[in-house]
């Protein structure tokens, strides 16, 4: 979950997803579209901004002129960001369906709602610009939806022989849950995480470090924690198991995850899951009850 370019800090993940989520819901697009669109948009914006700033620094000397040009570049890129974001959603939609994908005309209507007046031709040109900037490499990793689905499967709910999972659930005294039901809850929780991304990960950082703001000398190391999709997928499903099921259901899922994924401990999963649960506004479950040292 890389961040956008520092000059575009106002376009944080929460701000981006506050546009992506309602648009994908409006057109009934695949869950994957949200997260692929986010990745394409962040990669494009970062690459585009870096290219423009590199050109300015190579063609001007240090001084007020360069500073004015840099500010002008930043403003232009920011002004174009709504068009670029809606275009990225359209591009992502084409990857998952031939029937349910956005058209330039649909993008134009979305932008009009955002009080951005443009043409279908401008959307088409925007698509070309984005694809050229990222060398048509639309995404490099599986979407978070895949990770969440994998964790549901790994937890024993993905089909096939469910006897081990059922036995664990019965022994824990937890209610059984259908795979589709857990996946549905988990995908909702995933949306919450991205809509409240800063809140969730600042809460996690505070728990880990004791600081309420991320220290500059911690940013590089903490960025790896924020980029850990396996950990996030496990925590999202664990949180969904708690919210929709019970503490016992959550405990069974966490124990299964930490057993199969050696590098992730019970405590890691539960700590992030607790931050996610807090972000939903629901009660926080007792970590000491579920976690192991």
UniProtKB/TrEMBL annotation:
Signal peptide bounds: none
Keywords: Membrane, Transmembrane, Transmembrane helix
Membrane-crossing segments per the record: 231-257, 269-287
GO biological process, one term: reciprocal meiotic recombination
GO cellular component: site of double-strand break
Gene3D superfamilies assigned to the protein according to its UniProt record, in alphabetical order: Cyclin-like
Name of the molecule in the record: Uncharacterized protein
Organism: Petrolisthes cinctipes
Organism phylogeny: Eukaryota, Metazoa, Ecdysozoa, Arthropoda, Crustacea
